Structures are given as structure tokens and as C-alpha cells.
TrEMBL record:
It comes from the Eukaryota. This is NAPDH-dependent diflavin reductase. It comes from Coemansia aciculifera.
């Protein structure tokens, strides 16, 4: 890959959809012979962002009533500093795509504010801001696909293709390396944020009437102070508690049976993230399926795209999977996968 053909893709994601979209864009960029850096906005090196001569793409979702996602708030507060000169980003070319729902009053407000603030700091937009809308009959993809077509046309004006686009039949580069470890290697259970604590549910009291259709409960949790990881637990009025779920063991067993992966379930695996400095964790497949993978969720469009690479070439299954991952096939995907 030519290092001069680089894209920086930064996302602000609350439920994972913006990250999924960012990685989908990265795969499309790879097929057009770009190298990519894909990171959450709060994880990005600000020095890189403020000095890069490469285009920067921002994929930004909305949470609550028009608020920024958790993993972009520090980045957003930094952009709002009054000490930043008005031409701080004069070397940047950028594009912003927002993911939201037009039934909310503050539709795509984080993306709109970000687009405006980047311009105030001297950055130059490659294309107009894109506004993905869950209310579109194709969902967010209804606006994303035409916006991406405009973006690729614009980028290829400045950086023409050195070779033909890599065809869809070619499997993209992996972002992880997975290896079987020796049995004496200790597993490393991990959580995505530092402010994650182990607690015990002590009270679950229904506060709505027994004959009311909503079951609203008062929950009380006890933090185990003997656990060294919990000693820094601090909160205040207005803070929210987010419960990290696990899949039921019966569902994990059913998944392992369906995939014929049961023989690997309790073997220790070394998982290395290839695009984030080579960070490595050791875990069992059973633990990953229990605590990390959303095996009971409704698959997104990108799931069918990735699955199509591993179906038998030329098979009816591969053809259907590629249809599900195309814009034209979204009605069939909705009927097959999402509608009751």
C-alpha cells in the first residue's frame, strides 16, 4: 500500500453502529488501495489529527436527546477550547456522516455541531455533511450509500486509482490474529472501560402496580469493597449505571453446537489486534461468546457481507449473502432478518 494514499477514519459510537459503519468504509477504502487508521475519536492521537495532511472522515452517532457518544466527548471538549486558533485545522480535509433518527427533535446534532466546528477551525469539507436517518425505509444505509459514492468520487479526483478496484470476491485483510496458546497461559478477562465494577444485586423491587403493563423496578447494587478493582468507584447525582450483559450458557452451548466449535471452546486463545499497536489478550472462546460477542443480536448488514467471503464460491448461499449486503437487497434483508 502507498502511504500517501491514507485515510484517517474516526468514529463516535454508543451502541456500535457508527464503529461498524467506520469499518465498512475502511473495507471499501482498502478495495480502492487506501490505507486506513480506524479509531474512536477519544482514542485518536490529537497531534495526528491536527497535523495530518491525509483526509479525515468522522462517523458520528447520536445518543439520548442529541448528545455526543461517550467515546467522542473528550475529543469534542478539546475542539471547543477557546485557546485553539481559528486556523488550527487549516491543513485538514474532512467529511462528516451522522447517524440518527429524524423522529427526535435534535436529529444528528452531534454531527451537525462537529461539521460546523471543524469549519470554524479552518478545515475544508470534501463533501457536504451526510445525515443517516433510521426513519428511511432502508435505514441509515439509505443516505450512507449515495454519500459514500460522492465521497469516493471526490477522493479519487485527488488520488486516482493506481490499479483497478479490488473485487468483492477478495477477502479483506484481517484486523485480528488468533492463535492457540499453551494450556498453562493465564486467561485475561477484560472490560472495555476503566470505570467498570463488579457488583451484587441486593434489591429488585417492582414500583409499578401489579396490573400495570410496564414492569418498572427499583434496583439496588452493592459494590464489593474488598475487590481492589472497585476501590475507586465514585459517582454523583445524575450519573447513569450501564449493566454489561452476558449470554446464557445454554445459548452459548447452542451456538457452539451449530458452528461445530465445541472442541475449541475451552482452549486458550491469544487474540492480537493488528491495527491498534498489537495489543494482545488471552481468552477462551467460551468466555468471548459469553461476555463479549452479541450472539443473540440481530445481525447487521456487514455481518452478511463478511459471511459471504467464506461461502462456497458461486453457490446460492454466497449469492444470497451478497444480495443481503447490497443496497438493492435491503428489503429482502429486513424481511428475512429483522421483521417478526
Amino acid at each position: 500500500m502507498d502511504d500517501s494514499r491514507k485515510l484517517v477514519i474516526l468514529y463516535g459510537s454508543q451502541t456500535g453502529y457508527a464503529e461498524d459503519t467506520a469499518r465498512r468504509i475502511a473495507r471499501q477504502a482498502w478495495r480502492r488501495h487506501f490505507t486506513t487508521i480506524v479509531q474512536a475519536m477519544d482514542s485518536a492521537d490529537k497531534q495526528l489529527v491536527f497535523t495530518t495532511s491525509h483526509p479525515v472522515l468522522f462517523i458520528c452517532s447520536t445518543t439520548g436527546q442529541g448528545a455526543e457518544p461517550d467515546n467522542m466527548r473528550r475529543f469534542w471538549r478539546f475542539l471547543l477550547r477557546k485557546s485553539l486558533p481559528h486556523d488550527a485545522l487549516s491543513s485538514m480535509q474532512f467529511a462528516v456522516f451522522g447517524l440518527g433518527d429524524s423522529s427526535y427533535q435534535k436529529f444528528n446534532f452531534p454531527a451537525k455541531r462537529l461539521f460546523r466546528r471543524l469549519q470554524q477551525l479552518g478545515a475544508r469539507p470534501l463533501v457536504e455533511r451526510g445525515d443517516g436517518d433510521d426513519q428511511h425505509y432502508l435505514g441509515v444505509d439509505g443516505q450512507l450509500d449515495p454519500w459514500l459514492a460522492l465521497l469516493w468520487d471526490r477522493l479519487l479526483e485527488d488520488m486516482p486509482l493506481p490499479r483497478p478496484i479490488i473485487p468483492e470476491s477478495v477477502v479483506p485483510d484481517s484486523t485480528y490474529r488468533v492463535e492457540v496458546c499453551d494450556d498453562d497461559v493465564e486467561t485475561q478477562e477484560y472490560f472495555p472501560e476503566d470505570s467498570t465494577y463488579r457488583v451484587v444485586l441486593t434489591v429488585s423491587e417492582r414500583i409499578t402496580a401489579a396490573d400495570h403493563f410496564q414492569d418498572v423496578r427499583h434496583l439496588r447494587f452493592a459494590i464489593d469493597s474488598s475487590d481492589s478493582e472497585n476501590t475507586a468507584a465514585v459517582w454523583g447525582p445524575g450519573d447513569c449505571a450501564v449493566v454489561r450483559p452476558q449470554n446464557l450458557s445454554a445459548d452459548v452451548d447452542a451456538f457452539l453446537t451449530a458452528t461445530s466449535w465445541g472442541i475449541y471452546a475451552d482452549r486458550r486463545l491469544r487474540v492480537t489486534a493488528l491495527e491498534s499497536g498489537g495489543s494482545m489478550r488471552v481468552a477462551t472462546l467460551r468466555w468471548l461468546l459469553t461476555s463479549h460477542f452479541d450472539i443473540m443480536g440481530v445481525p447487521r448488514r456487514s455481518f452478511f457481507e463478511m459471511l459471504s467471503y467464506f461461502a462456497l464460491e458461486g453457490s446460492a448461499e454466497q449469492s444470497k449473502l451478497r444480495e443481503f449486503s447490497s443496497t438493492a437487497g435491503q428489503d429482502d434483508l429486513l424481511a428475512y432478518c429483522m421483521r417478526p
